[in-house]
Specification:
binds zinc ion
Length: 251
């Protein structure tokens, strides 16, 4: 079935732009969709990039669906530290993403692409659902998430995305450790001390936020997150100011 299309084509001026998608090499193969994953430490600009990608896509006349969970605003939104925000659908570990998209289609809502923020919180099953949307339904997926948790281990959603995404990019926008080295790892700081044990991070980007029940730190201690270079994460050194400029800390 490969090779040039041989069926008659209505005569058209040779110079006319193709009014119809070429039926030859792309026949039976709609424009391929991709699963793209962008990851980095906290503060690296993931949500900003997510909203920028959405903006660029929607300007092309495409219709997108934005998903998030546990956004810093604690609302069904993707918000970025630079002040952008967009309504999003809040999902949780039990959300069937195939069902979600297909039910929108059934209502007549177009979904050409998905923007998935906080993708580190996806379950591996949900990542596979995204891959199926890409392959079977040609939905482009742009996923954005943290690379590692405060124990320096990949989040489950991140791991699965690294395994199956078509394209993976590490985002490294000027997130610096207090020493000036590139920020690489997220530290959980409890009462001024770096901790390495405890429930997996659920708070994405900011100091205490209402978090899903299962992994919230015990109420009481002051908890925040700080980006460190690998060396200072290993050493557990948080820098002279406890929380350096640009880092998030509670008063
Ligand atoms: Zn450092």
């Amino acid at each position: 079935m490969s090779g040039p299309a041989l069926q008659p084509v209505p005569a058209a001026p040779a110079s006319a732009p193709a009014a119809v998608p070429a039926s030859g090499d792309r026949r039976r193969a709609p424009a391929p969709a991709h699963l793209r994953f962008f990851h980095g430490p906290m503060d690296c600009g993931k949500s900003t990039l997510a909203l920028q990608v959405d903006h660029n896509q929607s300007r092309q006349g495409r219709s997108g669906l934005l998903l998030t969970q546990g956004d810093r605003s604690a609302q069904a939104q993707i918000t970025s530290r630079v002040g952008l925000a967009h309504d999003a659908v809040e999902v949780d570990a039990g959300t069937d993403l195939l069902l979600l998209v297909r039910s929108l289609w059934a209502e007549g809502t177009r979904v050409d692409y998905l923007i998935v923020d906080e993708a580190q919180f996806l379950t591996p099953v949900q990542v596979d659902q995204l891959a199926e949307l890409v392959d079977a339904s040609h939905v482009d997926v742009y996923a954005f998430g943290l690379t590692t948790d405060f124990r320096t281990r990949l989040f489950p959603g991140t791991q699965r995305l690294l395994e199956v995404a078509d394209d993976v990019q590490r985002i490294q926008v000027e997130v610096l450790c207090w020493c000036g080295a590139p920020g690489l790892l997220n530290a959980r700081v409890v009462d001024g001390q770096l901790v390495r044990h405890g429930a997996t991070v659920v708070v994405a980007d900011t100091a205490p936020t209402p978090a899903p029940e299962t992994a919230a730190p015990e109420p009481g201690p002051e908890v925040h997150y700080q980006v460190l270079c690998r060396r200072h994460h290993v050493l557990g050194q948080l820098g002279p100011g406890a929380a350096g400029p640009g880092q998030l800390a509670l008063p």
